[in-house]
Fold each of these.
Amino acid sequence: MVLEVAILNVLPNQSAEFEKAFAEAQAIISAIPGYQRHEFRRCVETPDRYLLLVRWKELLRHFYDPFSEVEHYTPL
């Protein structure tokens, strides 16, 4: 199993909207092949920081050495 860890720093005063949007996004995440389960947590000390843990089957792990770094990009 592969554990994906994402620390999400949300803009101040946007947490409620972010949580609503994530409610939709988690349905998309859970439909991806290899998905097993996820946890979504809000930081106690920093309320605008979230932790997303996604567990994946190791469908592709044996192709990488070392394991690939994952980054996310948006268009300019």
Amino acid sequence: MFEEKYQKVKIKTEYITLGQFLKYQGIVSSGFEAKIFINENKIFVNGVLTNARGKKLYPQTKININNTMFFEID
């Protein structure tokens, strides 16, 4: 993996859920859209495929969406 392709995303709370993260990044605009997006795309959290909208993302968590968008919680 190339560390430089991960975009750092700062959060002000202890964690953010995957659904909230997708809204925060402007990828979706609602929780319902997040649910659909998560089911229709391959989202890896720290290398593990997930479809849980409520998955908690803590600092240093890495998110890979369809091998095209890469984020790291900061």
Amino acid sequence: MIQPRIDTLLEQVDSNYAAVLVSAKRARQINSYFHNLGEGTFDEFPPPMVKSASKNYLTIALEEIAQGKITYHTR
């Protein structure tokens, strides 16, 4: 089961499609952050903004969205 639930995510984003796009992009940023940790380059990739028991980057991104830590805008 996916945590957090989709109804919690939809309170923060406009649609399921937006939730997928935002969470996928943020998960890639978190992945890059952890892969660049040893190199000392932190300027491009911000660290995770929530404490999570999960090591899955997508789950961390979804938790950030559910807690309102991620904002986005459409063109």
Amino acid sequence: MIHHLGVEVRDLAASARFYDAVFFALGIRRLHESAAAIAYGVMEPTFWIVQRGRPPAPGYGHVAFAARGRAAGAAADAAGIAHGGRDDGPPGPRPQYGARTFAAYLRDPDGLRVEVVAR
């Protein structure tokens, strides 16, 4: 159901030290690292810590739900908008995240970023 979860952090290095230690004990490892993000998982990156120069606050993190295909992703986007959500990026290909990635972005009624992704 959950594809990945991302959270904003104030200090990427300090947060990475914490999560490296916690996840090492759980058998989880770093699978991605860039100047602004580190991701952890077993087979695929599923938990991301991200530093974008904004302090952590409600609405800055996001949750991503896995869809079983593009049609399901587009349907979830439409349903969310029809039931109180706001568009935050229309359904479509997201090649920057992989050649086969299709995603839509919404904001829930409280402003949390919700992604629906299919690969």
